[in-house]
Design brief:
This protein starts with 6 loop residues before the first helix and ends in a 51-residue tail after the last helix. By secondary structure, the chain is mainly alpha-helical.
Amino acid sequence: MTKNMSQRDRAIRIIIGAVILPSVVLNAPFSIQLTGTAYMVGALFGVLLLVTGAMGTCPVYGLLKKKTQIPTKPVVIKAVAVKKTVRKPVARKTTRAPAKRKAPARKKVAPRKKK
């Protein structure tokens, strides 16, 4: 069966079922004293809550086509091609004296005309 209950819904059902079932079965003082049919309905309701909470599937939700789960995005794993490259070893450069800087080129200025 597919799960149709969220984690919160499951936790609430388990807690409520864990409170109802022992109080009905043991006729605890903090519950209403049940006898006969009410006793059986209460016990079955507690068991139903515990079982559906543990399984994560609710038959009533299935009939109503209801889901309380938060939809998750599917994880897509893409294949990545690995390109193998081979590097050639770099030849070592010999150490040389630093090259001399050239002086900046001078602009040619046209001679002035006499008046």
